[in-house]
From TrEMBL, chain A:
Domain of life, source organism: Bacteria
Name used for this protein in its record: (2Fe-2S)-binding protein
Secretion signal, residue range per the UniProt entry: none
Stored Pfam families: Fer2_4
UniProt-listed InterPro entries: 2Fe-2S-bd_N (IPR042204), 2Fe-2S_ferredoxin-like_sf (IPR036010)
Keywords annotated in UniProt: Oxidoreductase
From TrEMBL, chain B:
Organism of this sequence: Gluconacetobacter liquefaciens
InterPro entries named in the record: BFD-like_2Fe2S-bd_dom_sf, FAD/NAD-bd_sf, FAD/NAD-binding_dom, Metab_Enz_Cyan_OpOx_G3PDH, Opine_Oxase_asu/HCN_bsu, SoxA_A3
Protein name, entry field: FAD-dependent oxidoreductase
Keywords assigned by UniProt, alphabetized: Oxidoreductase
GO molecular function: oxidoreductase activity
Domain (FAD/NAD(P)-binding): residue spans on this chain: 5-320
Gene3D superfamilies in the cross-refs: BFD-like [2Fe-2S]-binding domain, FAD/NAD(P)-binding domain
Superkingdom of the organism of origin: Bacteria
Limits of the SoxA A3 domain: 384-454
Pfam families membership: Pyr_redox_2, SO_alpha_A3
Length: 102, 464
């Protein structure tokens, strides 16, 4: 849905995250939600109520629609979560199960 | 436990300006903010963008934030970025979680400078992927510098929608169409307000008029008088259907729709502390009840910036400074020679607020922003539609009983997206003014927190 204005010089795109098992290139210092908005499948979860797909809506932490599973952290707002190299992100499908996350 | 004189929540224009005044006067000041860098939403990413082409395209008001950020960095205030406040108790004891873990803070005073959020504007299909707010798109523009991949449709009204469209075009993006939901302003009253505003803030208004003219020229389509919207699609937005005041219904194809219907103060934090709020009819928003210093109804809790009522960045700076002066005076720490500071702040605040009544009037949201049709989802988290809530409201229940009956406002966003619509439905069903509707009670935590973070507090609380 979105595109980068400037393609970074080599090294600026150095971060790679794992989104549902697929490697996705990201810019150091950007949020998981902003990476997601450049993906063809720009949605982050299916709701617990009706399995409807949702995507980031407000990008500033007040709608909680961009909740995604971050390995080692649990369910976080993707718009408030900054990428790290090798970070594993999963789309949250339906209700979450209780598992130890930290 | 940390015991600063002043804890400031939010590092935007108000929070930073208050921190500078208070820290320079010798108070111990802590500033916590969710973002990794200072600036708030308006100056988001300013330190990285200053001096770049993107920074220039974002405009002079954006770049002006650098001076405040620099003063803040040099002020001596302790700054905790990437940190969220998840609970403030009546004793002012505050719980935060950030890169250094979870901590308790016991300040002597708290300044809430949490800014604004976009007014929730429910319409059919507003939960579909591909519908997002103009503010969200602007955040993506500021960092990491992304624009809609295809010419975009924008719907709504308010200065931010015009500003974003202007910035987008300057940076090489394109507006496919603009669906203007602004109501024609009642001319007599608006003209009087306009005259006053032009006299005192001619330059700002000229800028706004220029954005408008620019948008008219550059947008592929410009549709006036849009009164109803529907985003079409199943798994994602495929199109938009809109209706105009004269009854015309049209559909356009798009995979991205940006929506904006103005901004409202962030009240969650203040309400969680029991601070009184009131309905501000001119801004069609709830605002905290404050005195001329920003002091709330709860002793020790002050509010400044857009969280105190929408006024923009310059007003936020002045309100932040006034709040800091008040805290200094309350703590008996006001340095000599500060007598002139208050007058200067009040003068600058009056100047900054001069065009506000006019702007509020011409960008007053349309009525069905608050009363969407029966099919529209009100509570995004629990997927409750207007009809689900109207059913429960057939007997007199307040917002809090409605929450218990239906789960509206009980999801992860804790009512941040549905509180306005719920209040307006209650006001509508019971024929009461918005100011009389009891708001959702805000339950802790203010932000999600992991059990292990709460548990980690035991070590700090344990006796040595």
């Amino acid at each position: 849905m979105f595109r980068l204005l400037e393609q970074g010089r080599s090294g600026e795109d150095a971060v790679t995250i794992d989104l549902d098992g697929q490697p996705v290139r990201a810019r150091a210092g950007e949020t998981v939600a902003s990476v997601l908005m450049r993906e063809a499948e720009a949605w982050c979860r299916a709701t617990p109520v009706s399995q409807a797909r949702r995507a980031p809506y407000c990008m500033m932490g007040v709608c909680f629609d961009c909740l995604m599973l971050v390995e080692g952290e649990g369910l976080l707002r993707a718009c408030q979560t900054y990428v790290r190299d090798g970070m594993k992100i999963r789309r949250q499908i339906g209700a979450r199960h209780v598992v130890p996350s930290c | 436990m940390l015991k600063p004189d002043l804890l400031i929540v939010g590092a935007g224009p108000a929070g930073m300006s208050a921190a500078v005044v208070a820290a320079r006067a010798g108070l111990s000041v802590m500033v916590v903010d969710e973002q990794p860098t200072p600036g708030g939403q308006i100056w988001r990413g300013i330190e990285a963008n200053a001096g770049t082409a993107r920074g220039r395209a974002l405009g002079a008001p954006y770049l002006s934030g650098l001076a405040t950020v620099r003063a803040f960095r040099e002020s001596g205030a302790v700054y905790w970025p990437s940190t969220r406040v998840w609970q403030i108790e009546p004793t002012l004891r505050t719980y935060v979680t950030g890169p250094d873990g979870t901590l308790m803070i016991q300040p002597s005073a708290i300044l809430i400078a949490t800014g604004a959020q976009e007014r929730p504007a429910p319409f059919r299909g507003w939960t579909l992927p591909g519908v997002m707010t103009v503010g969200a798109a602007q955040i993506l523009l500021k960092a990491p510098g992304t624009v809609p991949a295809a010419p975009v449709w924008i719907a709504g009204c308010g200065p931010l929608a015009l500003l974003y469209a202007h910035q987008l075009v300057r940076l090489g993006g394109a507006v496919a169409g603009f669906l203007d939901t602004r109501m024609p302003a009642p001319l007599a009253g608006a003209a009087r307000l306009a005259a006053g505003a032009v006299l005192r803030s001619g330059r700002e208004l000229a800028k706004g008029a220029y954005w408008y003219a620019d948008l008219h020229r550059r947008a592929g389509r410009y549709v006036r008088g849009v009164v109803d919207l529907q985003a079409l699609g199943t798994d994602r937005v495929e199109g938009v259907r809109y209706r105009t005041a004269d009854g015309r219904v049209e559909e356009v194809e798009t995979s991205l729709l940006l929506i904006h219907e103005g901004v409202v103060p962030e009240l969650h934090t203040a309400r969680s502390l029991g601070c009184q709020t009131r309905w501000h009819a001119g801004q069609a928003a709830y605002v905290p009840v404050l005195n001329e210093w920003g002091e709330s109804s709860v002793p020790g809790i002050l509010v400044a910036g857009d969280a105190a009522g929408i006024g923009g960045a310059e007003a936020a700076i002045q309100r932040g400074r006034l709040a800091a002066l008040r805290i200094l005076s309350r703590l008996g720490r006001l340095p000599a020679g500060q007598e002139g500071a208050e007058a200067a702040c009040r003068k600058a605040l009056a100047r900054a607020l001069a065009p506000r009544a006019f702007l509020d009037r011409i960008f007053m949201p349309r009525e069905n922003v608050f009363l969407p049709d029966d099919d529209t989802i009100v509570c995004r988290c629990e997927e409750l539609r207007v009809r689900d809530l109207r059913g429960a409201l057939s007997c007199s229940v307040g917002a809090n009983q409605l929450k218990a009956f239906t789960r509206a406002g009980m999801g992860p966003c804790q009512g941040r997206q549905c509180a306005y619509t719920v209040a307006s439905l209650i006001a509508n069903v019971e024929a009461r003014p918005m100011g009389d509707v009891e708001p959702f009670r805000v339950r802790p935590p203010l932000k999600p927190v992991r059990l292990c973070d709460v548990a980690s507090l035991a070590e700090e609380a344990a006796p040595p």
